Amino acid sequence: MSARAPILCEVSAPRAAHAAALAEAAGECARDLGQRLRVKTLAIGCSAREPVLTLHLPAELAASQHQVWCLACRLACKCPGARVSVHVRATLAFGPSGLQPHRRRCA
């Protein structure tokens, strides 16, 4: 297991049972990959028209660990009726001490 903070996985679903099943599937996939995951249920009922799993992670984790992308792919395969998205928080990463954007050279 990583010593980093867990990835946040937000779950929205039309029914409580569906949200619980999605949360359980997310936990299983994360354990299989050795990723720490914190699941938070956001919406159940009419405000959640379709099931959605959203992973929130910092830019340095997205850039350095392919397991995060494996987790998103596994979730999409295990929960084909749900939309899976990944939100990368990169606002601080491109500052003076953070990751620097790749600069293209023109010919």
Q: Any overview of this molecule?
A:
The chain has three helices and four strands; from the N terminus they run βαββααβ. It is α/β, with parallel strands linked by helices and 107 residues long. The protein has a four-stranded mixed sheet with strand order 2-1-3-4. α1 runs antiparallel to α3. The longest helix is centred in the N-terminal third of the chain and has 18 residues. The model has no long low-confidence stretch (mean pLDDT 81).
Which ranges are low-confidence, i.e. pLDDT below 50, for 5 or more consecutive residues?
A: none
CATH class: Alpha Beta
The helical percent reads: 25-40%
Named CATH architecture? 2-Layer Sandwich
The largest sheet, given as strand count, sense and whether it forms a barrel, is:
4 strands, mixed
Number of strands: 4
Q: Within the largest sheet, what's the order of strands?
A: 2-1-3-4
Task: Specify the CATH homologous superfamily.
Answer: Macrophage Migration Inhibitory Factor
| Total helical segments | 3
Rg over CA atoms, rounded to whole Å, is 16 Å
Distance between the termini: 45 Å
Topology:
Layout: E1 7-13, H1 16-33, E2 37-44, E3 52-58, H2 59-64, H3 66-78, E4 83-89
Parallel strand pairs: 1-2, 3-4
Antiparallel strand pairs: 1-3
Helix pairs in contact: 1-3
Offer a few descriptive terms:
single chain, globular, 3 helices, alpha/beta, Macrophage Migration Inhibitory Factor, 27% strand, 4-stranded mixed β-sheet, 35% helix, 107 residues
